Amino acid sequence: MERKLIFMDGEFTKLTTKGVNFLSLALITEEGKELYLEIEQDKNDIDPWVQENVIPLLNGNAVTKEEAKEEIIEFVKENYGEDKPVLVADVNQFDWNGICELFGVWDIPFFYIPIDFSSILFTKGIDIDVDRIELAKNLGISIEGFKQHNALTDTKILKATWDKLK
């Protein structure tokens, strides 16, 4: 069975072992259809680094967690029917934890085994700590208008890099 892919990146309030809460997340299908969401969070529970580097890149149109879940489910169904696409994320242990936090472990609209893009880079002999914008530029991907630490542009870089490396 060939599994369809969906690319994803999320920005968090802070990295923690006690649940990962999305400030924003983006999904892009293999065909290039996009979903970008910002999710309401307690502004007092945001890491100072995130305050400085992520918050300025948000558009301020946040939805509730329930609205985000409904929009994600609708987006997945519109593009994949009843199939559950395989989630591809750059550092998927954080993104997958955020998905589990948002949906609950058994109600996730994605296949239960995500793909970690950093592992793909490792198998291709590429330093997993490489700056993703520099990597994209070195692969000939146009990076004009890309803002690192914005979920949508980070997902666009992820997908474009995936497409170049496959």
Overview of the structural elements:
This is 3'-5' exoribonuclease. InterPro entries: RNaseH-like_sf, RNaseH_sf. This protein has 166 residues and is an alpha/beta fold. The chain has one domain (5-165): Ribonuclease H-like superfamily/Ribonuclease H (Nucleotidyltransferase, domain 5, 2-Layer Sandwich), CATH 3.30.420.10. It is 38% helix and 18% strand. It is built from six helices and six strands. It has helices at 48-53, 65-80, 92-103, 117-123, 132-138, 151-165, and strands spanning 5-12, 22-29, 34-39, 62-63, 86-89, 115-116. Strands 4-3-2-1-5-6 form a six-stranded mixed beta sheet. The protein is globular and about 40 Å long.
List keywords for this structure.
166 residues, alpha/beta, Nucleotidyltransferase, domain 5, 6-stranded mixed sheet, 6 helices, 38% helix, globular
Task: Describe the structure in brief.
By secondary structure, the chain is α/β, with parallel strands linked by helices. It has helices at 48-53, 65-80, 92-103, 117-123, 132-138, 151-165; strands spanning 5-12, 22-29, 34-39, 62-63, 86-89, 115-116. The chain has one domain (5-165): Ribonuclease H-like superfamily/Ribonuclease H (Nucleotidyltransferase, domain 5), CATH 3.30.420.
